[in-house]
User: Which sequence fits this backbone?
């Protein structure tokens, strides 16, 4: 059996963006084994899950590939990994992990028959290199990469299949079901500049509780301060429940699949909700809207902040030139998205557009 390796060892949302390209590979090469080189999180999430990936291999901690660029790897662990990968005898290795400054040399050590992927101006070339342009749709970017192998698909929308174990884990931490609709709020994001203010989320949560929803506020353990900030600013706290640190990604998928509405910053859980076809309001910074915009609008409402300068020092953040990283402030770049706009989007999705949930 021929094998295709796909390198993308980053976060949940990044995996979701790659799903249409992975599906294109599966549809075009049905007899090939698709091996995803990712993190333990990917292995746990994809184990037994129907989808385009046959197998996940966890990559070791490596600078610029799953770890910070200045990370000091374990040479013995890394060398053993690459020996194992060469024994796999991949026919094709595809780089979907950034511009290739670190990931292209990584990919070249797999010993694949052919390498394909992205190349930023400062990155070494692969056998087939596609220019890495930052402000471009992530979903279309990876579809373009696999198109150079002849892979195509008619579906641009990421799809995640839910499993019984997902629902079971979610039910274990949810309140006993009383028939009320469910809302999920996710106030976190990898970059704190993508955090909508907690007081704003609190107003949305109060509205949802008043409308009869049971509200669950999700977050990683390190995001407890965000979840607590919402609860502390709510007027109707009894209708909201923290699930901070209580769910694996499988359990998160289960929770989202049971939701009637999701309100979230631009983050992995938001994109997972999109892939589960759950009505969702997403709060985006304008640059991330370009790269991460959803492919459909019937049950999605992306709201855009047009702030491009740091609210504290005024440094321009949209041009991504040398020196832009001099700004180390973590002030929100999305605070100008209004509560009224979010509430209007929630009302849109829980009204006529919401009825499309079951058929889209």
Assistant:
């Amino acid at each position: 059996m021929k094998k295709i390796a796909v390198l993308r060892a980053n976060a949940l949302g990044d995996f979701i963006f790659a799903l249409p390209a992975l599906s294109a590979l599966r549809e075009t090469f049905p007899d090939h084994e698709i091996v995803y080189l990712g993190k333990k999180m990917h292995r746990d999430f994809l184990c037994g899950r129907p989808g385009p990936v046959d197998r996940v291999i966890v990559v070791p901690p490596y600078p610029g590939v799953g770890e910070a660029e200045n990370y000091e790897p374990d040479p013995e662990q890394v060398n053993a990994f690459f020996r194992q990968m060469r024994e796999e005898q991949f026919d094709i290795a595809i780089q979907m992990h950034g511009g290739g400054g670190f990931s292209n040399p990584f990919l070249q050590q797999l010993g694949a028959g052919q390498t394909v992927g992205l190349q930023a101006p400062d990155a070494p070339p692969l056998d087939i290199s596609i220019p890495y342009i930052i402000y471009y749709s992530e979903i279309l970017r990876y579809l373009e990469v696999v198109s150079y192998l002849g892979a195509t698909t008619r579906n641009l929308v990421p799809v995640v299949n839910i499993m019984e174990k997902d629902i079971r884990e979610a039910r274990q931490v949810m309140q006993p079901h009383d028939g009320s609709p469910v809302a999920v709020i996710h106030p976190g994001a990898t970059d704190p500049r993508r955090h909508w203010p907690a007081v704003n989320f609190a107003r949305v949560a109060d509205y949802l509780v008043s409308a009869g929803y049971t509200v669950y506020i999700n977050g990683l353990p390190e995001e407890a301060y965000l979840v607590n900030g919402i609860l502390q600013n709510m007027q109707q706290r009894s209708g909201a429940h923290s699930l901070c640190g209580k769910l694996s990604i499988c359990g998160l998928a289960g929770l989202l699949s049971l939701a009637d509405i999701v309100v979230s910053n631009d983050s992995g859980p938001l994109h997972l909700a999109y892939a589960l076809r759950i009505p969702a309001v997403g709060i985006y910074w304008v640059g991330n809207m370009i790269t991460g915009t959803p492919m459909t609008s019937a049950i999605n409402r992306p709201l855009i902040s047009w702030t491009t300068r740091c609210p504290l020092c005024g440094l321009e953040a949209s041009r991504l030139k040398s020196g832009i990283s001099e700004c180390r402030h973590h002030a929100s770049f999305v605070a100008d998205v209004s509560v009224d706009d979010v509430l209007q989007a929630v009302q849109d999705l829980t009204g006529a557009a919401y009825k499309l949930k079951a058929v889209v």
Notes: The chain has two domains: 3-147, 164-356. DSSP finds twelve helices and 14 strands in the chain. The CA atoms of residues 297 and 353 lie 9 Å apart. The longest strand covers residues 33-38.
